TrEMBL record:
Name by which UniProt lists this protein: Agmatinase
InterPro entries: Agmatinase-rel, Ureohydrolase, Ureohydrolase_dom_sf, Ureohydrolase_Mn_BS
CDD domains with a match to the protein in the record: Agmatinase_PAH
Family indicated by similarity: Belongs to the arginase family. Agmatinase subfamily.
Length: 315
């Protein structure tokens, strides 16, 4: 096996020079194959409030220029022990949600066909449904940890089935999730009715609210989540609005009272050794951002996801 090709060396080429790929990694077409592909989905036609997450992938790539190759918190060099590459963006129809959902499922399945695991940068949360479908094609019904201010298990908006508020209800209906191992983390904010929580519970979700994270602390929350997941194939879906608007202003449906970026990153690190098979980071809407606060946070989250995959090399 040839050595993985890593990022551009920032001691030779200034990190602010050249086109942005995630963490300055090679493009997928520059390597034979990748163990992990970081792929963008610039789609935001499923939003219920502020648009703009279509610009998330390029903002996160730009904000990822400062990432370095060794992760001290997890003691891993994620670009040295596995080939990581930037697969570019999945081009999907911005005028037709149903068609876009199909396109994303097919493109993700094609990328993952030879064992490549995907870290996807959104795009709005609609894209989690086709990504979960693609993951379930390979692994069967999978465990899900969903980090979000919102439940995203609502039924329809204006009669539309595929929106950023409904992906996980669709996924449960389709039988692609392991309903013994579903949790929301960071949930908060007003709901439409108490019934939202009843419906959500009936679908099988456990809820660790944002206040629970504050009261119980990161370690206890991690223990509880890990017990629920066990060894199952696990997918992580991270809506950046799980963070407090102070930590992630650049998003479409902000809610007060969220996690700090430190809490989120520490919970992720607590998942080291879990059987992670794929992940997404969604809802970065750069037009509402300031000083790249949100896209920097998202790029670090994506780096941690790639690092967790490095610790779960099955091959
Ligand atoms: N997935 C995100 N970010 N938001 C869902 C909010 C749905 C609503 O407007 O009620
Ligand atoms: Zn959300
Ligand atoms: Zn969401």
């Amino acid at each position: 096996m040839t050595e993985p090709r890593g990022p551009v060396d920032s001691s030779r080429v200034p990190r602010f020079a050249g086109p942005a790929t995630f963490a300055r990694l090679p493009r997928l077409d520059e390597v034979d194959r990748a163990d992990v592909a970081v792929v963008g989905v610039p789609f935001d036609t499923g939003v219920s409030y502020r648009p703009g997450a279509r610009f998330g992938p390029s903002a996160v790539r730009e904000a990822s220029r400062l990432l370095r190759p060794y992760h001290p918190g997890l003691d891993v060099s994620p670009f040295a022990t596995q080939q990581v590459a930037d697969a570019g963006d999945i081009a999907c129809n911005p005028f037709n949600i149903n068609e876009a959902v199909e396109t994303i499922e097919e493109a993700a399945s094609a990328l993952a066909a030879d064992g490549t695991r995907l870290v996807t940068i959104g795009g709005d949360h609609t894209i989690a449904l086709p990504l979960l479908r693609a993951a379930a094609r390979l692994h069967g019904p999978i465990a899900l940890l969903h980090f979000d201010a919102h439940l995203d298990t609502w039924d329809t908006y204006f009669g539309a089935e595929y929106t950023h508020g409904t992906p996980f209800r669709r996924a449960v209906e389709e039988g692609i999730l392991d309903t013994e191992a579903l949790s929301h983390v960071g949930t908060r904010g007003p709901l439409y009715a108490k019934k939202d929580l009843d419906d959500d519970r009936r679908m099988g979700f456990g809820v660790v609210t944002s206040a629970d994270v504050m009261r119980r602390g990161v370690d206890e929350v991690v223990d509880a989540l890990r017990q629920r997941i066990g060894e199952r194939p696990l997918y992580l879906s991270i809506d950046i609005d799980v963070l407090d608007p102070a930590h992630a202003p650049g998003t479409g449906t902000p809610e007060a009272g969220g996690l700090t970026s430190r809490e989120l990153l520490e919970i992720l690190r607590g998942l080291a050794g879990a059987n992670l098979v794929g992940a997404d980071v969604v809802e970065v809407a750069p037009a509402y951002d300031h000083a790249e606060i949100t896209s920097v946070a998202a790029s670090h989250v994506a780096y941690d996801l790639v690092s967790l995959l490095a610790l779960n090399k099955t091959s």
